[in-house]
Amino acid sequence: MANSGLQMLGFALSLLGLIGLIVGTILPQWKMSAYVGDNIITAIAMYEGLWMSCAFQSTGQIQCKVYDSILQLNSALQATRALMIVSIIVIVVGLGAACMGMKCTNCGGDDKTRKSRIAMVAGIIILIGSLCAIIACSWYANDIIQAFYNPFTPVNTKYEFGSAIFIAWAGSFLAIVGGCMLAASCPRRSPKSTPKYPISRPPSSKEYV
């Protein structure tokens, strides 16, 4: 029963992590304009995400523009896009496998050992997907840091971390915790059962004498 509760908690955390990754991938606030040096104009806030860039004006108006061509994007953004999409797909597959391996479901049959192995594999799949998301977020964050501290970067084009990258990070860590809980469903080895009745042996030749 405790193992079943651990599986349900791991599945719930993985699902919350998946939602966080999807929301973080869609939002355009992966990086926001940094107001440093002489860049004190706060009438317009610039945000850039994986799919579009947006300008938030102080009047409340929002103008967003989708990136025209993939080839114009830098390598960090392209890699982050690919890794986030792969991460979401892999975690969805892992959650589907977890539905078959959890003890509270009837999808994977009645064999408890088999279901535990399926849940363990599902947890490993979710861990792989969440690691892809962490690599993507860290790669993008490293690109922001390098551009921020680069002395040749103009002050009005410097950016800092936005809220979306923190949401994606949080979703990744939730998925990691949930995947670890599901992977902990490794089936235990059952002790060898001793026969209840003595094994009948054929009579020896001495008994017939």
Question: How do the helices and strands line up, and which of them pair or pack?
Answer:
Elements: H1 2-26, E1 31-33, E2 44-48, E3 52-57, E4 62-66, H2 75-101, H3 112-149, E5 159-161, H4 163-183
Antiparallel strand pairs: 1-2, 1-5, 2-3, 3-4
Helix pairs in contact: 1-2, 1-3, 1-4, 2-3, 3-4
Summarize the structure.
With 209 residues, the chain is α+β, with helices and mostly antiparallel strands. The chain is built from 4 helices and 5 strands; from the N terminus they run H-E-E-E-E-H-H-E-H.
Task: Write up this protein.
With 209 residues, the chain is of the alpha+beta class. Helices cover 53% and strands 11% of the residues. The protein has 4 helices and 5 strands, in the order αββββααβα. It has helices at residues 2-26, 75-101, 112-149, 163-183, and strands at residues 31-33, 44-48, 52-57, 62-66, 159-161. It has a 5-stranded antiparallel β-sheet. α2 (75-101) runs antiparallel to α3 and α3 (112-149) packs antiparallel against α4 (163-183). The protein starts with a helix and ends in a 26-residue tail after the last helix. The model has no long low-confidence stretch (mean pLDDT 82).
